[in-house]
């Protein structure tokens, strides 16, 4: 029976022990499952050289990038995360005694755990925004899931009719670049889109409102009066609810602030930090809706069909989906605290 790879020190010891115990080569081979040639060779090496371990690990070409070189390569990567393998190779070879190839650099980076990935897209945060985000997280770090259940989350989102995914890859031959099966059609502005405004809490999904034109203060006031107010008074009849909205200009208009002031005895407007979509769980609901649209067997071909699809998917979102998002709020807060107000992975 053949044996792939080198024998371990323990296996070599078993062979030597069996032979010294009086077993023949054939008996040892049958007992341990190694070939007779292997049994004979290992015992002979032990008898003549007292060799009990393999020396194959010392064979072959020595590694060109040892621990010190790996530390240097890691510094180059951290200094410029966007550097290509060619650039890293050039910088590594500058001043070095031995030059290495791009293939060696690529292999070494993989061995070190580095891999090429698309960077996460996060909002641009100023020092002031970071401070405000950190203050918000500190003020709410002791909120429990029960506290977050009293918050109604709102936001707007735009869904494009023609979704162009730049990450699509295809298999083709060199001469097939313009083959119809290898092309992805594009249209200006995604062929148009549908803007919607939505609201939800841990207890229930709220209405989803299509926005036909630009959402100015007047249009937003209608949404607040016709949809936010009924939802808040129904979900939180004891006036212990919080309404969340971002810092869009139309949300900060005077007529909006006056309306909320008139109704401050019914619910509270949550003071929201700027540039914080990672803290708003409704952003993940938009992602769910988007994914559901893209896997539809029959894709929408016009804006009316797209709007109908969005509304239908919204109403069918399961409770565990949006409740799980609300229950993630303590983790989101901790992530902002850990990042000292910086962007998080949520």
From TrEMBL:
UniProt xrefs under Gene3D superfamilies: Ribonuclease H-like superfamily/Ribonuclease H (3.30.420.10), Winged helix-like DNA-binding domain superfamily/Winged helix DNA-binding domain (1.10.10.10)
Transposase Tc1-like domain sequence ranges: 70-142
Pfam family for this entry, one: HTH_Tnp_Tc3_2
Stated name of the protein: Tc1-like transposase DDE domain-containing protein
GO molecular function, one term: DNA binding
Species per Swiss-Prot/TrEMBL record: Cyprinodon variegatus
Xref: InterPro entries: Homeodomain-like_sf, RNaseH_sf, Tc1-like_DDE_dom, Transposase_5, Transposase_Tc1-like, WH-like_DNA-bd_sf
Coiled coil: none
GO biological process terms on file: DNA integration; DNA transposition
Tc1-like transposase DDE domain location: 245-294
Superkingdom of origin organism: Eukaryota
């Amino acid at each position: 029976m053949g044996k792939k790879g080198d024998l371990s020190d323990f296996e070599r010891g078993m062979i030597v022990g069996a032979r010294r115990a009086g077993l023949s080569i054939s008996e040892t081979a049958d007992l341990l499952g190694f070939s007779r040639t292997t049994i004979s060779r290992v015992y002979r090496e032990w008898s003549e050289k007292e060799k009990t371990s393999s020396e194959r690990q010392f064979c072959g070409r020595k590694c060109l990038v040892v621990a010190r070189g790996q530390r240097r390569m890691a510094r180059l990567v951290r200094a410029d995360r966007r550097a290509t393998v060619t650039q890293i190779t050039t910088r590594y070879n500058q001043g070095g005694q031995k030059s290495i190839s791009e293939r060696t650099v690529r292999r070494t980076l993989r061995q070190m755990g580095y891999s090429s990935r698309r960077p996460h897209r996060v909002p641009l945060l100023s020092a002031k925004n970071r401070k405000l985000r950190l203050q918000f997280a500190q003020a709410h770090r002791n909120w429990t899931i029960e506290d977050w259940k009293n918050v109604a989350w709102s936001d707007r989102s735009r869904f494009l009719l023609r979704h162009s995914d730049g990450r699509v890859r295809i298999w083709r031959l060199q001469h097939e670049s313009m083959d119809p099966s290898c092309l992805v059609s594009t249209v200006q502005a995604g062929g148009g889109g549908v803007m919607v405004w939505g609201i939800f809490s841990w207890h229930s999904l709220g209405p989803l409102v299509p926005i036909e034109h630009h959402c100015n203060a007047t249009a937003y006031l209608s949404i607040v009066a016709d949809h936010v107010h009924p939802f808040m008074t129904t979900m939180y009849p004891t006036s212990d609810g919080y309404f969340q909205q971002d810092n869009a200009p139309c949300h900060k208009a005077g007529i909006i602030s006056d309306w909320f002031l008139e109704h401050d005895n019914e619910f509270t407007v949550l003071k929201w930090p700027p540039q914080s979509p990672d803290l708003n769980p409704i952003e993940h609901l938009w992602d769910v809706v988007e994914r559901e649209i893209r896997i539809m067997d029959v894709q929408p071909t016009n804006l009316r069909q797209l709007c109908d699809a969005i509304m239908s998917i919204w109403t069918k979102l399961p409770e565990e989906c949006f409740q799980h998002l609300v229950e993630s709020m303590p983790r989101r807060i901790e992530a902002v605290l850990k990042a000292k107000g910086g962007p998080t992975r949520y």
